[in-house]
Design goal:
Layout (H helix, E strand, L loop, with lengths): L1 E6 L5 H12 L2 E4 H11 L2 H11 L6 H12 L8 E4 L5 H13 L6 E6 L2 H10 L1 E3 L5 E2 L15 E2 L6 H25 L3 E5 L4 H11 L3
Parallel strand pairs: 1-3, 1-4, 2-3, 4-8
Antiparallel strand pairs: 5-6, 5-7
Bound molecules: adenosine monophosphate.
Length: about 210
């Protein structure tokens, strides 16, 4: 089963992806996590992506499609994937169709996590992430240890107010049309209310998937 998690930055995709993956018995693939790890490791990919990421712009489609193509061919994704943070542009949706077809798979559903902009700004400005395992947290302070792995909690550079504003504009201009693209392509799509307790959002998402 291959599911695209769709929604604004801060809609909760990174929180819900591992929960859904566990329930569905598949792995998660978060392009943002792959890119942040590459930036931290100082690889060629990281050096290329860093400038885009720091200002809240999208990394070029060809780079993203390369990451996804390589990752999904690995044995860990043989049963499918929860795709978190990809697909973010219509050219990526078109490219993904080819990537999936090459693997004999397809996107089975798109879940749109729906949250209003003022709530997004509130969430992102108080969000911290673990520098090591990337788990997002809405409580704690910079420098605290990650409850999950002991890494250090940090604020993402793109969670600063200026970058948040830009990311929301990018979402409207480049990402929002992707949802309609999938609907028009005949892929099952569903909008999930992504406000309220995390467990309730997970339950709504599973229900939308018929689970
Ligand atoms: P995220 O963790 O999903 O919010 O992604 C963080 C940043 O990584 C984004 O603001 C982009 O700069 C970059 N990024 C992650 N996934 C993609 C994607 N599918 N297309 C383009 N850029 C991406």
């Amino acid at each position: 089963m291959n599911i695209v998690l769709f929604g604004k930055p801060g809609a909760g995709k990174g929180t819900q992806a591992p929960r859904l993956a566990e329930r569905l018995g598949v792995a998660t693939l978060a392009t943002g996590d792959v890119l942040r790890a590459a930036v931290q490791a100082g690889t060629a990919l990281g050096r290329e992506a860093k400038g885009y990421m720091d200002r809240g712009a999208l990394v070029p489609d060809a780079v993203i499609l390369g990451i996804v193509r390589e990752a999904l061919a690995a044995p860990g994704y043989a049963r499918g994937a929860i795709l978190d943070g990809v697909v973010r542009t219509v050219p990526q949706a078109e490219g993904m169709r080819g990537v999936m077809a090459g693997l004999g798979r397809r996107i089975d559903a798109v879940l749109d996590f729906d949250v209003a902009n003022d709530e997004i700004v509130r969430r992102l400005s108080s969000r911290l992430v673990c520098a090591a395992c990337q788990t997002p947290y809405m409580t704690g302070k910079v420098g605290d240890p990650c409850p999950k792995c002991g890494g250090v909690l940090v604020r993402r550079k793109d969670d600063e107010p200026e970058a948040i504003r830009h990311r929301l504009e990018v979402f409207e201009a480049q990402t929002a049309p992707v949802f309609e693209w999938y609907r028009a392509a005949g892929t099952p799509v569903a909008t999930v209310d992504a406000t309220g307790p995390v467990d309730e959002v997970t339950a709504r998402a599973l229900k939308a998937l018929g689970r």
